[in-house]
Each structure stands twice: as C-alpha cells, then as structure tokens.
Write the structure tokens for this entry.
Amino acid sequence: MRALIIEDDEKIGASISTALELAGFLTVLEKDGEEGWFLGSSEPFDVIILDLGLPTLDGLTILKRWRKENCITPVLILTARGNWDERVEGIDSGADDYLVKPYRSEELVARVRSLVRRSTGHAAPNIEVGDIVLDTRQMRVSRDGQPIPLTPQEYRLVSYLMHNNNRVVDQMELTEHLYSQDFERDSNSIEVLVGRTRRKLGKNSIKTRRGFGYIMEDENE
Amino acid sequence: MRALIIEDDEKIGASISTALELAGFLTVLEKDGEEGWFLGSSEPFDVIILDLGLPTLDGLTILKRWRKENCITPVLILTARGNWDERVEGIDSGADDYLVKPYRSEELVARVRSLVRRSTGHAAPNIEVGDIVLDTRQMRVSRDGQPIPLTPQEYRLVSYLMHNNNRVVDQMELTEHLYSQDFERDSNSIEVLVGRTRRKLGKNSIKTRRGFGYIMEDENE
DNA sequence: GTTTTTCTGACAATTCACTGACAATACGCT
DNA sequence: AGCGTATTGTCAGTGAATTGTCAGAAAAAC
C-alpha cells in the first residue's frame, strides 16, 4: 500500500512517514502543496494524509481539486486543535476522516488502516479470503489459525491482494502499489515474489489469470 | 478494440499504451501529427487519444479534419491544465471527452472505456446479451452469474461482438479490430477463435450468418 | 449432387509465467 | 563500524497455456 503524506512541518512529516512504514506502507512525503497536489493527481495512492495549513497551496483547495478530478482516494486531514470550522469544511470538501493535532501516532496508523480497509469494502480489521486470514493490526497472515511468517514485501503483496479480493490485479498495478518509484519494466520481480509467497501460503492461494494478472478469491467462484 | 494514441512525449505515450493494453486494447502509438492524422483517416480504430500541442500538426486541426471527413471515431483529447480555451475549442471541434493533465492512468482507462461503450450505444459498464454479461471494468465474462475464464484473445472477440450486439460483424471487420497489423487473409484464425470461444460460452452464444459474418444477439430477434 | 462456406481436431510456434541459482542489498547484532 | 544473515532483484533455462496453421469433415446453398 502506498501512502502520500502532504505536511510542511519537517519533524511531523518524518514521524508520520516512519510510523506508516512500520505499519507496512510505502510512503511519499511532500512538503509543498502544489507538488503534493500534482503527485496525488498523477500517481495512484491507496491513502493520502493531508495537512491543512500549507504554505503554497491550501490543503482544502487541493482536496477539492482532487474530488473535482474524480479522484476517490481516501483522504485523512490533519487539523490544528480547536479549528472546528476547518474540520467541518474538510468533511464537506470530501475528506474521509480527520485527526486533530496533537495525536498519538498509533491513533493515526489505526485511522489510516481503517480508511484503506473501508475504501476496499472491508469493515473488519481482519480480512478473510478462503482459509487465509489477514490481520491488518498485527500485520500477520495465518492459514487455518496457523500463523505464516512472511517477509515485508511478501506481506505487502498479500495485503494488497486480500484488500482487493475477488478482483484480478494486473502486474502493472501490483508494481505501482508495491514499489516506491516506478520500476524497470523488464524484470520479473513480481513473478518471483508471487512464486515465493505461494510456496508459503499454499499452491492455490494466489491464482494466476494468464494474460490478465493475479487474484485471491473465495472458493465458490 | 483498437486504440490510436497520438502523443509526442515518449514516456507519456508509452504509459498510455501499456495502460490501455492491460485493459485489453490493441494500441498504435504515433508521435507525429501528420502521420497520426493519416492513420486515423485510413485505418479503423475504436477510439483515439489525441494530445493537443503536437509539433508538426496541431491536435485541433487534426480533429477538425477528421470530422470534416465524416470520421466519427470517438476522440479523447488531452489538454494541459488551465487551458480552458483549448478545452472548449476541443469540444466545439468534435471531441467526445477531454482529460486534463496530470491524470492517473486508471482515470484515462475509465474514460476510454466509457467512450467506447457510449459510441456503441451502451450506457452501463456491464453489457448484457442474452444470458451473457460482459463486465468491461473487470474484463470478465459470465453466464447466469457464473464467470467464464477466457484467454485474452477470446475476451477481445467477445468484447467486440457484445459492444456491437444485434449487428452482424463480418470476418474482415473482426480481423481489423482484433489484430494489430494487417494479417494474412488466407488463414482461418477467426473461425478457430470463434469455435473455441463458442465451446466456452455455449453453442448459441455466437451465431453464424453464413456468407455475412457473426453476431451475438438477444433471444427475441 | 456438387460447390461453397464454416467447423473441428491435431499439430506447431509462440508467448507467457514459473523456477532455481546467483548477486546485490538491506538489516540486525555484537 | 564490521560481520553474518535475511531479504530481494536478476537472469537463464524450463514448462505450460495460448494462438495460428493446416487438412479433412460437416453443414448449408444452389
């Protein structure tokens, strides 16, 4: 999962970034509003953390622009304490959730996880596909109750596929959401990653739709 | 479905091309305006993506020429941000939709799909013919709710026939829209493809009009 | 019944995905 | 900081699914 963080305060930005990376996200941190808007408009993110009160371009303006462009990526806005107006206006402008500074970073991570889940149609923090369970809070994957140790990259793969369960995901999309910068196209790293993950989860966990992509789906399909 | 992309920027062009190919399109990428105009006039495309601001020949000029020639292929124009004039003029010149840079490639693909659907008279993203349903977003075909796995080429065939439902499509037309470069005429690959697809969809899904071509049609006709 | 058109099964070529071995890199530990 | 281990990317070779070709069979038209 890729998260875009737009925050001008150096320290706060870095702390959000590390907190989310520990939670398994890939992050892009941007201080400038204009540049941030551009990133959100041109690259696919799974969630965006947006500070209101940016220098060059105001957060609410960015948000409104995105929404006008049919961008439906979930957005969490950060507001200063007491600014009720901002908060209300943020929701009106299309924010999906808001968080008041100061906050504990666990709180932020929890909110972000929840946003990502809800945006992919999952209410509960545990996502089940077939006999595989993804525990988004503990970042663990288990099969029939047996925990399966995965490497960080493998976890990201499974997490992305399970959030988007019953949907074929092509290699391009996986590359975009599993690697920070865009990536040499001529390598087969995704195939290798899928192969390794499959060996741990079981042959039929991740299915190949030749010519289309990969899918994790419930049995009855 | 065949898409013509006229875009001088090497990288942008390539990214549009791969995005559309992953979405099941065959693409032709052309950097030169003059050459692009010629291609659009001489070969049958299902949709054209046209960048305004080309070096040799301006996009709007190309578009106007096509329309004067009674070419009705749907055209999506790409404009730089803020150029309202261009956009308005584009619509006036016969563009069917426009997209402002920067954009996410999912958005582009969605617009292109929508254009192709509308140009063949389909409002919804799911097209139903008889008991067969084509899900254009997920690129899946199902019958009575049961998904039917198809190979990429088979999918292209069904997609084309279902977009053009209740209309007889001859082999020449199918060849032109299902293969990138012009193809040896003496092979019977279309017949074989139809046969294989029929085996998966059911005997009566694709009907043969001997001497004319193939058709997928609703039962009551 | 003959001719034309389309269908079908078998084979071949190609493309695409998987695998195992190796190399590079990142990471944790003392 | 330096070493050892785990993780990840690369590459070449293997295997399998897809697609095209061809020849003969079936079906339709006359």
Q: What stands out?
A: Chain B has a mean pLDDT of 94. The helical segments of chain B are 10-22, 33-42, 59-68, 84-92, 105-119, 152-163, 171-178, 189-201. Residues 151-154, 187-189, 192-193, 196, 210-211 of chain B lie near DNA strand D (CB under 10 Å from a C1').
